[in-house]
Write a structure and sequence with these properties.
The chain is of the alpha+beta class and 175 residues long. It has one domain. A hairpin with a 5-residue loop joins strand 3 and strand 4.
């Protein structure tokens, strides 16, 4: 009796085809993951923006949280009435691509104390690009500007939403 089996050449061809298919699929999955995280960030930033506006409405006298607080979200969780019930974390800070100070980082926040006392704020995510230690701030007229502070490069300003820049929301202009 003759046993039927695959030849080494047939196995090499099948394995080669599988490797090629995997090589095509992995980058596409990464792109889909980034797109999903961008959508998640936009929705969570909108939630935080609504929470900051609610904080303003319920505070006496009306005021936005200052960025001198340790973080934005504790002031929203501990307020009366409670505005949000859980922390929201920037999904791009858990990536090894972005140099955040650790995983499970909250979204960035700059309040009116950085806008020369004007009632403007900006909330941001580092975004999917290779953005090293981004920081967003405001001019006294409410215009947002974002900076990247990289270890090996000088600070470079960029327009919010462009490649290498954070994703942000503000009650001013520029996001």
């Amino acid at each position: 009796m003759h046993k039927q089996a695959f030849t080494i050449i047939e196995l090499v061809i099948v394995i080669s085809v599988l490797v090629i298919l995997i090589g095509i699929a992995i980058p596409r999955m990464k792109g889909m993951q980034d797109a999903a995280n961008i959508t998640k960030v936009k929705h969570e930033l909108a939630t935080l923006q609504s929470a900051v506006e609610s904080y303003y409405t319920f505070s006496t006298p009306h005021a936005y949280p200052n960025s001198s607080l340790t973080a934005l979200q504790p002031s929203l969780i501990n307020s009366t009435p409670q505005i949000i019930s859980t922390y929201l974390y920037d999904p791009f800070c858990s990536s090894s691509v972005n140099s955040c100070s650790g995983t499970d980082q909250e979204y960035g926040y700059t309040g009116p104390d950085w806008a020369g006392g004007a009632q403007y704020y900006v909330i941001w995510s580092v975004g999917p690009a290779d953005t090293e230690n981004p920081f967003c701030s405001l001019n006294s007229n409410g215009s947002v500007y974002c900076m990247n502070y990289g270890v090996s490069k000088a600070p470079a300003s960029c327009a919010p939403g462009s490649t290498g820049c954070p994703i942000c929301v503000t009650n001013g202009t520029g996001c």
